[in-house]
Design a protein that fits this description.
The protein is α/β, with parallel strands linked by helices. The chain is built from six helices and five strands. The protein has a five-stranded parallel beta sheet. 30% of the residues are buried. About 8% of the residues have low confidence.
């Protein structure tokens, strides 16, 4: 069974959309929602041992509300990447940025993928496949004959 999915998002509508999308995609990993950078860092730093992957507590994926690159969001990404044991965790930045240099800022600081927010929640299953996590997430298999 995969780890949790950490969703760092402050808008209720986007949180609800993400939760619905995961349910529709039949992905049943625990979704941990943190509404700001400080709460996300507190959660990640509070894991029993981020450097010990056998603990099974390292998130399978982090979805980070990027909006447009801001000092706060970019700093959060850099801080997450500096936490031991999290360097391999895919971080998908949900962004509204369209300028190439905005996307470059995310990738330069360690984002695994940048996805336009409206597209991400529309087809979360496609997003998961794009990031290559389908084997790590807990999916419910439809009963035979469906």
């Amino acid at each position: 069974m995969g780890g949790c999915i950490l969703l760092v998002e402050d808008r209720d509508e986007d949180i609800e959309g993400a939760l619905r999308s995961f349910k529709r995609a039949r992905i049943f990993n625990e979704i941990v929602v943190k509404r700001d950078a400080a709460a996300a860092l507190d959660f990640l730093k509070g894991l029993p041992d981020c450097s010990n992957e056998s603990e099974g507590v390292v998130p399978a994926m982090i979805l980070l509300d990027g909006g447009r690159p801001s000092a706060n969001a970019i700093e959060l990404l850099e801080k997450i990447r500096s936490i031991g044991g999290l360097h391999h965790v895919p971080i998908v930045v949900l962004t509204s940025a369209q300028a190439e240099n905005d996307l470059d800022a995310w990738y330069e600081r360690g984002a695994s993928s940048c996805v336009r927010k409206q597209a991400a929640f529309g087809d979360i299953a496609a997003l998961i496949r794009r990031v290559g996590l389908s084997l790590f997430l807990t999916q419910e298999i439809p009963p035979h004959g469906d």
